[in-house]
Design goal:
Helix 4 runs antiparallel to helix 5 and helix 12 packs antiparallel against helix 13. Helix content is about 30%, strand content about 25%. By secondary structure, the protein is α+β, with helices and mostly antiparallel strands. The strands form six sheets. An eight-stranded antiparallel β-sheet has the order 13-12-9-10-11-14-21-19, sandwiched between helices. A five-stranded parallel β-sheet has the order 3-2-1-4-5. A three-stranded antiparallel β-sheet has the order 7-6-8. The longest helix has 16 residues. It has three domains: about 100 residues, Rossmann fold (3-Layer(aba) Sandwich), CATH 3.40.50; about 70 residues, ATP-grasp fold, A domain (Dna Ligase, domain 1), CATH 3.30.1490.20; about 240 residues, ATP-grasp fold, B domain (D-amino Acid Aminotransferase, Chain A, domain 1), CATH 3.30.470.20.
Length: about 450
Protein backbone atom coordinates (compact mmCIF):
# COMPACT_ATOMS: atom_id res chain seq x y z
CA UNK A 1 0.00 0.00 0.00
CA UNK A 2 1.62 3.25 -1.10
CA UNK A 3 0.95 6.74 0.18
CA UNK A 4 -2.52 7.86 -0.77
CA UNK A 5 -3.59 4.40 -1.91
CA UNK A 6 -7.19 3.43 -1.16
CA UNK A 7 -8.76 -0.01 -0.99
CA UNK A 8 -10.57 -0.83 -4.22
CA UNK A 9 -13.21 -3.30 -3.06
CA UNK A 10 -16.63 -2.09 -2.05
CA UNK A 11 -17.39 -0.03 -5.15
CA UNK A 12 -20.53 -0.42 -7.22
CA UNK A 13 -21.00 -3.80 -8.83
CA UNK A 14 -23.53 -2.61 -11.38
CA UNK A 15 -20.92 -0.70 -13.38
CA UNK A 16 -23.07 2.45 -13.31
CA UNK A 17 -22.54 5.54 -11.13
CA UNK A 18 -24.76 5.29 -8.04
CA UNK A 19 -25.71 8.96 -8.43
CA UNK A 20 -25.09 11.60 -11.06
CA UNK A 21 -24.02 14.30 -8.59
CA UNK A 22 -23.33 14.27 -4.84
CA UNK A 23 -22.87 17.21 -2.49
CA UNK A 24 -20.23 16.74 0.22
CA UNK A 25 -21.38 18.56 3.37
CA UNK A 26 -17.99 18.71 5.05
CA UNK A 27 -14.42 19.98 4.82
CA UNK A 28 -10.83 18.82 5.46
CA UNK A 29 -9.50 15.34 4.90
CA UNK A 30 -12.86 13.54 4.88
CA UNK A 31 -14.21 15.94 2.26
CA UNK A 32 -11.13 15.31 0.11
CA UNK A 33 -11.52 11.55 0.48
CA UNK A 34 -15.25 11.62 -0.29
CA UNK A 35 -14.78 13.78 -3.37
CA UNK A 36 -12.13 11.42 -4.73
CA UNK A 37 -14.34 8.38 -4.16
CA UNK A 38 -17.39 10.04 -5.72
CA UNK A 39 -15.39 10.86 -8.82
CA UNK A 40 -13.92 7.35 -8.93
CA UNK A 41 -17.50 6.02 -8.97
CA UNK A 42 -18.19 8.12 -12.06
CA UNK A 43 -20.24 10.85 -10.38
CA UNK A 44 -19.67 14.59 -9.98
CA UNK A 45 -18.81 16.02 -6.58
CA UNK A 46 -20.02 19.34 -5.19
CA UNK A 47 -18.05 20.94 -2.36
CA UNK A 48 -19.33 23.50 0.11
CA UNK A 49 -16.97 25.92 1.79
CA UNK A 50 -16.81 28.82 4.20
CA UNK A 51 -15.09 32.13 3.51
CA UNK A 52 -12.10 30.86 5.51
CA UNK A 53 -11.85 27.77 3.28
CA UNK A 54 -12.06 29.46 -0.13
CA UNK A 55 -8.66 28.06 -1.13
CA UNK A 56 -8.85 24.80 0.84
CA UNK A 57 -7.85 21.57 -0.96
CA UNK A 58 -11.35 20.07 -0.97
CA UNK A 59 -12.64 23.06 -2.92
CA UNK A 60 -10.08 22.58 -5.67
CA UNK A 61 -10.72 18.83 -5.89
CA UNK A 62 -14.46 19.16 -6.45
CA UNK A 63 -16.22 19.53 -9.79
CA UNK A 64 -18.22 22.43 -8.35
CA UNK A 65 -18.03 24.43 -5.14
CA UNK A 66 -20.55 26.64 -3.35
CA UNK A 67 -19.87 29.25 -0.68
CA UNK A 68 -22.21 28.62 2.27
CA UNK A 69 -21.22 31.35 4.73
CA UNK A 70 -18.62 33.08 6.89
CA UNK A 71 -15.86 31.30 8.79
CA UNK A 72 -17.76 30.33 11.98
CA UNK A 73 -19.08 26.80 11.56
CA UNK A 74 -22.55 27.73 12.82
CA UNK A 75 -22.83 30.15 9.90
CA UNK A 76 -21.41 27.80 7.25
CA UNK A 77 -20.87 24.05 7.74
CA UNK A 78 -23.69 23.91 10.31
CA UNK A 79 -25.96 26.17 8.28
CA UNK A 80 -28.57 23.64 7.21
CA UNK A 81 -30.51 25.95 4.95
CA UNK A 82 -27.41 27.13 3.09
CA UNK A 83 -26.26 23.56 2.48
CA UNK A 84 -29.68 22.41 1.32
CA UNK A 85 -29.89 25.41 -1.00
CA UNK A 86 -26.45 24.56 -2.40
CA UNK A 87 -27.64 21.02 -3.15
CA UNK A 88 -30.75 22.30 -4.93
CA UNK A 89 -28.84 24.99 -6.82
CA UNK A 90 -26.29 22.54 -8.22
CA UNK A 91 -28.74 19.72 -8.97
CA UNK A 92 -27.17 17.29 -6.53
CA UNK A 93 -29.09 14.06 -6.00
CA UNK A 94 -27.55 13.07 -2.67
CA UNK A 95 -25.74 14.52 0.34
CA UNK A 96 -22.62 12.93 1.83
CA UNK A 97 -22.11 14.08 5.45
CA UNK A 98 -18.76 12.55 6.49
CA UNK A 99 -18.27 12.94 10.25
CA UNK A 100 -18.66 15.87 12.60
CA UNK A 101 -20.78 18.90 11.69
CA UNK A 102 -24.24 17.66 10.59
CA UNK A 103 -23.40 13.98 10.17
CA UNK A 104 -25.41 12.86 13.22
CA UNK A 105 -28.15 15.45 13.03
CA UNK A 106 -31.48 13.66 12.58
CA UNK A 107 -33.27 16.91 11.81
CA UNK A 108 -30.90 17.69 8.94
CA UNK A 109 -31.00 14.19 7.48
CA UNK A 110 -34.81 14.39 7.56
CA UNK A 111 -34.70 17.77 5.79
CA UNK A 112 -32.45 16.26 3.11
CA UNK A 113 -35.10 13.63 2.39
CA UNK A 114 -37.86 16.21 2.36
CA UNK A 115 -35.97 18.04 -0.40
CA UNK A 116 -36.14 14.87 -2.49
CA UNK A 117 -32.44 14.15 -1.94
CA UNK A 118 -30.80 10.96 -0.71
CA UNK A 119 -29.06 11.07 2.66
CA UNK A 120 -25.93 8.94 2.51
CA UNK A 121 -26.31 7.46 5.98
CA UNK A 122 -28.85 5.73 8.19
CA UNK A 123 -32.47 6.92 8.41
CA UNK A 124 -33.23 10.02 10.52
CA UNK A 125 -35.06 7.91 13.10
CA UNK A 126 -31.97 5.78 13.68
CA UNK A 127 -29.75 8.83 14.07
CA UNK A 128 -32.14 10.33 16.61
CA UNK A 129 -32.44 7.08 18.57
CA UNK A 130 -28.71 6.60 18.98
CA UNK A 131 -28.08 10.33 19.43
CA UNK A 132 -30.12 10.22 22.63
CA UNK A 133 -27.59 8.49 24.90
CA UNK A 134 -30.18 7.47 27.50
CA UNK A 135 -32.49 5.97 24.88
CA UNK A 136 -29.50 4.24 23.25
CA UNK A 137 -28.65 2.63 26.61
CA UNK A 138 -32.20 1.37 26.95
CA UNK A 139 -32.21 -0.09 23.42
CA UNK A 140 -28.87 -1.77 24.08
CA UNK A 141 -30.17 -3.32 27.30
CA UNK A 142 -33.28 -4.58 25.53
CA UNK A 143 -31.04 -6.15 22.86
CA UNK A 144 -29.02 -8.01 25.48
CA UNK A 145 -25.96 -5.78 25.23
CA UNK A 146 -24.24 -5.16 28.58
CA UNK A 147 -24.35 -1.53 29.75
CA UNK A 148 -22.55 0.35 32.53
CA UNK A 149 -24.75 0.96 35.61
CA UNK A 150 -26.30 4.39 35.24
CA UNK A 151 -29.37 6.60 35.39
CA UNK A 152 -31.97 8.07 33.10
CA UNK A 153 -32.31 11.80 32.41
CA UNK A 154 -32.08 13.59 35.74
CA UNK A 155 -33.87 16.57 37.19
CA UNK A 156 -31.98 18.84 39.59
CA UNK A 157 -33.48 17.15 42.64
CA UNK A 158 -32.84 13.59 41.44
CA UNK A 159 -29.08 13.57 40.87
CA UNK A 160 -27.91 13.08 44.45
CA UNK A 161 -30.11 10.00 45.00
CA UNK A 162 -29.16 8.52 41.60
CA UNK A 163 -25.46 9.10 42.32
CA UNK A 164 -25.77 7.35 45.68
CA UNK A 165 -27.48 4.38 44.05
CA UNK A 166 -24.84 4.08 41.30
CA UNK A 167 -21.83 4.72 43.51
CA UNK A 168 -18.76 6.93 43.23
CA UNK A 169 -16.70 7.75 41.26
CA UNK A 170 -19.08 8.42 38.41
CA UNK A 171 -19.32 10.25 35.12
CA UNK A 172 -21.75 13.07 34.37
CA UNK A 173 -22.71 12.85 30.70
CA UNK A 174 -24.73 14.99 28.29
CA UNK A 175 -27.66 13.14 26.75
CA UNK A 176 -26.84 14.72 23.38
CA UNK A 177 -23.08 14.38 23.86
CA UNK A 178 -20.43 12.88 21.64
CA UNK A 179 -16.71 13.00 20.90
CA UNK A 180 -15.91 13.40 24.58
CA UNK A 181 -17.85 16.67 24.81
CA UNK A 182 -20.22 17.00 27.75
CA UNK A 183 -18.45 14.49 30.01
CA UNK A 184 -17.16 15.26 33.50
CA UNK A 185 -15.91 13.07 36.34
CA UNK A 186 -17.20 13.48 39.89
CA UNK A 187 -15.36 11.58 42.60
CA UNK A 188 -17.20 12.53 45.80
CA UNK A 189 -20.73 13.65 46.80
CA UNK A 190 -19.39 17.06 47.82
CA UNK A 191 -18.38 17.83 44.23
CA UNK A 192 -21.56 16.62 42.56
CA UNK A 193 -23.52 19.88 42.49
CA UNK A 194 -20.64 21.91 41.07
CA UNK A 195 -19.90 19.32 38.38
CA UNK A 196 -23.58 19.04 37.44
CA UNK A 197 -23.85 22.80 36.97
CA UNK A 198 -20.73 22.89 34.78
CA UNK A 199 -21.79 19.84 32.75
CA UNK A 200 -25.27 21.23 32.08
CA UNK A 201 -23.84 24.58 31.00
CA UNK A 202 -21.34 22.91 28.63
CA UNK A 203 -24.05 20.65 27.19
CA UNK A 204 -26.40 23.56 26.58
CA UNK A 205 -23.64 25.49 24.82
CA UNK A 206 -22.42 22.58 22.68
CA UNK A 207 -25.69 20.84 21.84
CA UNK A 208 -28.54 23.19 22.69
CA UNK A 209 -29.72 20.57 25.19
CA UNK A 210 -28.69 20.58 28.86
CA UNK A 211 -30.14 17.17 29.77
CA UNK A 212 -27.63 15.02 31.66
CA UNK A 213 -27.41 11.53 33.11
CA UNK A 214 -24.96 9.58 35.27
CA UNK A 215 -22.84 6.48 34.72
CA UNK A 216 -20.59 4.56 37.05
CA UNK A 217 -16.97 5.39 36.20
CA UNK A 218 -14.75 2.50 35.15
CA UNK A 219 -11.34 3.54 36.46
CA UNK A 220 -8.97 2.17 33.81
CA UNK A 221 -11.01 1.05 30.82
CA UNK A 222 -9.93 0.17 27.35
CA UNK A 223 -11.96 1.75 24.57
CA UNK A 224 -12.71 -0.86 21.90
CA UNK A 225 -15.22 -0.50 19.09
CA UNK A 226 -16.82 -2.65 16.42
CA UNK A 227 -17.34 -1.49 12.83
CA UNK A 228 -20.63 -2.71 11.38
CA UNK A 229 -22.23 -2.13 7.99
CA UNK A 230 -25.66 -3.01 6.66
CA UNK A 231 -27.95 -2.47 3.71
CA UNK A 232 -31.61 -1.51 3.39
CA UNK A 233 -32.64 -5.17 3.01
CA UNK A 234 -31.66 -6.40 6.46
CA UNK A 235 -28.21 -7.74 5.58
CA UNK A 236 -25.61 -6.85 8.21
CA UNK A 237 -21.98 -7.75 8.93
CA UNK A 238 -19.23 -6.65 11.28
CA UNK A 239 -15.77 -5.66 10.07
CA UNK A 240 -13.89 -6.43 13.26
CA UNK A 241 -12.65 -4.37 16.18
CA UNK A 242 -10.58 -1.24 16.70
CA UNK A 243 -8.52 -0.24 19.72
CA UNK A 244 -9.11 3.44 20.54
CA UNK A 245 -7.75 3.74 24.09
CA UNK A 246 -5.06 6.31 23.31
CA UNK A 247 -6.94 9.55 23.91
CA UNK A 248 -6.46 13.08 25.15
CA UNK A 249 -9.32 15.15 26.55
CA UNK A 250 -11.60 12.11 26.03
CA UNK A 251 -10.86 12.24 22.29
CA UNK A 252 -8.98 9.65 20.25
CA UNK A 253 -5.56 10.32 18.80
CA UNK A 254 -4.24 6.85 17.84
CA UNK A 255 -6.33 3.87 16.75
CA UNK A 256 -5.57 0.40 15.48
CA UNK A 257 -7.20 -2.67 13.98
CA UNK A 258 -7.73 -5.28 15.08
CA UNK A 259 -7.76 -4.51 18.83
CA UNK A 260 -4.80 -6.41 20.36
CA UNK A 261 -4.77 -8.56 23.50
CA UNK A 262 -8.51 -9.14 23.73
CA UNK A 263 -9.54 -11.61 26.47
CA UNK A 264 -10.35 -15.06 25.13
CA UNK A 265 -13.76 -15.16 23.50
CA UNK A 266 -14.38 -11.41 23.76
CA UNK A 267 -13.96 -10.72 20.03
CA UNK A 268 -16.86 -13.02 19.21
CA UNK A 269 -19.01 -11.84 22.11
CA UNK A 270 -18.43 -8.15 21.39
CA UNK A 271 -19.03 -8.36 17.64
CA UNK A 272 -22.19 -10.41 18.26
CA UNK A 273 -23.41 -7.77 20.73
CA UNK A 274 -22.76 -5.00 18.19
CA UNK A 275 -24.75 -6.86 15.56
CA UNK A 276 -27.64 -7.47 17.99
CA UNK A 277 -27.88 -3.75 18.68
CA UNK A 278 -27.68 -2.89 14.98
CA UNK A 279 -30.43 -5.40 14.14
CA UNK A 280 -32.62 -4.02 16.93
CA UNK A 281 -32.73 -0.64 15.17
CA UNK A 282 -32.69 -2.07 11.60
CA UNK A 283 -29.42 -0.29 10.92
CA UNK A 284 -28.32 0.54 7.37
CA UNK A 285 -24.97 1.91 6.21
CA UNK A 286 -21.68 1.97 8.14
CA UNK A 287 -21.79 2.56 11.89
CA UNK A 288 -19.71 1.93 14.97
CA UNK A 289 -20.70 0.42 18.29
CA UNK A 290 -18.32 1.53 21.02
CA UNK A 291 -17.53 -0.38 24.19
CA UNK A 292 -15.53 0.05 27.37
CA UNK A 293 -13.52 -2.99 28.40
CA UNK A 294 -12.89 -3.60 32.10
CA UNK A 295 -10.75 -6.70 32.53
CA UNK A 296 -12.80 -9.64 31.31
CA UNK A 297 -16.01 -7.59 30.92
CA UNK A 298 -17.21 -5.14 28.30
CA UNK A 299 -19.97 -2.53 28.39
CA UNK A 300 -21.85 -0.55 25.74
CA UNK A 301 -20.68 3.08 25.52
CA UNK A 302 -22.47 4.55 22.49
CA UNK A 303 -23.22 4.02 18.83
CA UNK A 304 -22.01 6.44 16.17
CA UNK A 305 -24.42 6.49 13.23
CA UNK A 306 -21.82 7.56 10.70
CA UNK A 307 -18.37 6.75 9.43
CA UNK A 308 -15.64 7.16 12.05
CA UNK A 309 -12.47 9.20 11.69
CA UNK A 310 -10.52 5.98 12.25
CA UNK A 311 -12.24 3.92 9.54
CA UNK A 312 -9.01 3.65 7.44
CA UNK A 313 -7.47 1.08 9.79
CA UNK A 314 -10.47 -1.17 9.16
CA UNK A 315 -10.10 -0.61 5.43
CA UNK A 316 -6.45 -1.64 5.66
CA UNK A 317 -7.07 -4.97 7.41
CA UNK A 318 -10.16 -5.90 5.36
CA UNK A 319 -9.21 -4.49 1.93
CA UNK A 320 -12.65 -2.88 1.73
CA UNK A 321 -13.48 0.68 0.70
CA UNK A 322 -15.96 1.93 3.28
CA UNK A 323 -16.58 5.32 1.71
CA UNK A 324 -17.44 3.90 -1.71
CA UNK A 325 -19.48 1.12 -0.09
CA UNK A 326 -21.41 3.68 1.96
CA UNK A 327 -22.37 5.56 -1.19
CA UNK A 328 -23.47 2.52 -3.17
CA UNK A 329 -25.54 1.20 -0.27
CA UNK A 330 -27.33 4.54 -0.07
CA UNK A 331 -28.11 4.19 -3.77
CA UNK A 332 -29.97 0.95 -3.02
CA UNK A 333 -27.38 -1.72 -3.71
CA UNK A 334 -27.28 -4.83 -1.53
CA UNK A 335 -24.41 -5.51 0.84
CA UNK A 336 -23.10 -8.23 -1.44
CA UNK A 337 -21.06 -10.00 1.24
CA UNK A 338 -21.76 -12.46 4.00
CA UNK A 339 -19.92 -12.52 7.32
CA UNK A 340 -17.99 -15.57 6.15
CA UNK A 341 -16.65 -13.56 3.22
CA UNK A 342 -15.13 -10.89 5.50
CA UNK A 343 -11.50 -11.65 6.38
CA UNK A 344 -8.71 -9.81 8.17
CA UNK A 345 -5.08 -9.47 7.16
CA UNK A 346 -2.20 -7.93 9.09
CA UNK A 347 -2.38 -5.00 11.47
CA UNK A 348 -3.01 -1.26 10.95
CA UNK A 349 -2.45 1.84 13.09
CA UNK A 350 -3.69 5.38 12.51
CA UNK A 351 -2.03 8.43 14.09
CA UNK A 352 -3.97 11.67 13.87
CA UNK A 353 -1.77 14.68 13.14
CA UNK A 354 -3.20 17.79 14.78
CA UNK A 355 -2.29 21.46 14.93
CA UNK A 356 -2.22 21.42 18.71
CA UNK A 357 0.24 21.82 21.56
CA UNK A 358 0.66 18.65 23.67
CA UNK A 359 2.56 20.62 26.31
CA UNK A 360 -0.44 22.90 26.84
CA UNK A 361 -3.09 20.23 27.34
CA UNK A 362 -3.33 19.68 23.57
CA UNK A 363 -4.92 23.07 22.97
CA UNK A 364 -5.27 23.98 19.26
CA UNK A 365 -2.46 26.01 17.71
CA UNK A 366 -3.77 27.64 14.53
CA UNK A 367 -1.46 29.40 12.12
CA UNK A 368 0.08 29.23 8.66
CA UNK A 369 1.45 25.94 7.40
CA UNK A 370 4.73 27.02 5.86
CA UNK A 371 5.55 23.50 4.73
CA UNK A 372 3.91 20.12 5.05
CA UNK A 373 5.15 16.86 3.58
CA UNK A 374 4.21 13.29 4.33
CA UNK A 375 6.16 10.10 3.58
CA UNK A 376 5.66 8.06 0.44
CA UNK A 377 6.54 4.63 1.71
CA UNK A 378 5.37 1.07 1.27
CA UNK A 379 2.65 0.26 3.79
CA UNK A 380 1.91 3.93 4.49
CA UNK A 381 -1.23 5.83 3.57
CA UNK A 382 -1.92 9.49 4.28
CA UNK A 383 -5.41 10.99 4.32
CA UNK A 384 -4.76 14.73 4.31
CA UNK A 385 -6.83 17.88 4.04
CA UNK A 386 -4.07 20.49 3.98
CA UNK A 387 -1.29 21.81 1.74
CA UNK A 388 1.79 23.96 2.23
CA UNK A 389 0.96 27.65 2.53
CA UNK A 390 -2.53 27.03 3.90
CA UNK A 391 -3.77 28.83 7.00
CA UNK A 392 -5.20 26.62 9.72
CA UNK A 393 -7.98 28.64 11.34
CA UNK A 394 -9.28 28.40 14.93
CA UNK A 395 -12.83 27.87 13.67
CA UNK A 396 -12.68 24.11 13.07
CA UNK A 397 -11.23 20.88 14.41
CA UNK A 398 -7.41 21.16 14.09
CA UNK A 399 -6.96 17.76 12.41
CA UNK A 400 -4.45 18.14 9.57
CA UNK A 401 -4.03 14.58 8.37
CA UNK A 402 -4.18 10.92 9.31
CA UNK A 403 -1.03 8.83 9.00
CA UNK A 404 -2.09 5.20 8.49
CA UNK A 405 0.38 2.32 8.45
CA UNK A 406 -0.05 -1.38 7.77
CA UNK A 407 2.16 -4.45 8.07
CA UNK A 408 1.82 -8.18 8.61
CA UNK A 409 2.26 -8.03 12.41
CA UNK A 410 1.61 -5.43 15.07
CA UNK A 411 5.30 -5.27 15.99
CA UNK A 412 6.27 -4.48 12.41
CA UNK A 413 3.41 -1.99 12.10
CA UNK A 414 4.63 -0.07 15.16
CA UNK A 415 8.09 0.07 13.60
CA UNK A 416 6.65 1.33 10.36
CA UNK A 417 4.70 4.00 12.25
CA UNK A 418 7.91 5.26 13.84
CA UNK A 419 9.63 5.43 10.44
CA UNK A 420 6.69 7.26 8.87
CA UNK A 421 6.53 9.81 11.70
CA UNK A 422 10.26 10.44 11.39
CA UNK A 423 9.70 11.24 7.71
CA UNK A 424 6.77 13.59 8.39
CA UNK A 425 7.51 17.33 8.15
CA UNK A 426 5.17 20.09 9.30
CA UNK A 427 6.60 23.62 9.66
CA UNK A 428 5.06 26.93 10.63
CA UNK A 429 2.90 25.94 13.56
CA UNK A 430 2.94 23.66 16.58
CA UNK A 431 1.73 20.10 16.00
CA UNK A 432 1.57 16.83 17.93
CA UNK A 433 4.09 15.07 15.65
CA UNK A 434 6.84 14.99 18.31
CA UNK A 435 4.33 13.63 20.82
CA UNK A 436 3.41 10.87 18.37
CA UNK A 437 7.08 10.04 17.85
CA UNK A 438 7.53 9.74 21.61
CA UNK A 439 4.49 7.50 21.78
CA UNK A 440 5.69 5.24 18.95
CA UNK A 441 8.98 4.70 20.80
CA UNK A 442 7.37 3.94 24.16
CA UNK A 443 7.64 0.37 25.44
CA UNK A 444 4.12 0.29 26.90
CA UNK A 445 2.65 1.35 23.56
CA UNK A 446 4.81 -1.22 21.81
CA UNK A 447 3.35 -3.88 24.09
CA UNK A 448 -0.19 -2.91 23.07
CA UNK A 449 -1.40 -2.99 26.67
CA UNK A 450 -2.78 0.51 27.11
CA UNK A 451 -5.91 2.03 28.61
CA UNK A 452 -7.63 5.41 28.35
CA UNK A 453 -5.33 6.94 30.99
CA UNK A 454 -2.16 6.05 29.09
CA UNK A 455 -1.55 9.54 27.70
CA UNK A 456 -2.22 11.47 30.92
CA UNK A 457 -0.70 9.07 33.45
CA UNK A 458 2.00 7.10 31.64
CA UNK A 459 3.24 9.72 29.18
CA UNK A 460 2.44 12.57 31.56
CA UNK A 461 0.50 14.82 29.21
CA UNK A 462 -2.47 16.44 30.95
Amino acid sequence: MSAGARPSEGATRSGQPPFRKILVANRGEIACRAIQEIQALGASAVAVYSEADASAPHVGLADEAVLVGPAPAVESYLNQQAILDAASKTGAEAVYPGYGFLSENGEFSRAVGERGLVWIGPPPETISQMGDKVLARAIAEEAGVPVVPGSGVLGDDEAAKAAEDIGYPLMVKAVAGGGGIGMQVVETPEKLEKVLTAAKSRAASAFGNDDIYLEWLIQRPRHVEVQIIGDAYGNLVHLGTRECSIQRRHQKVVEEALAPHMPEGMFGEMTAAALRLARAIEYAGPGTVEFMVDGEEFYFLEMNTRLQVEHPVTECVTGLNLVAWQITLAAGEELGRTQEEISFSGHAIEARIYAENPKKRFFPSPGRLEEVSFPEMEGVRVDSGVTSGQTVTPHYDPLLAKLIVWDETRERTVGRLAEALDATRVKGLITNVEFLRELAADEVFKSGRVDTKYVSEHLGYG
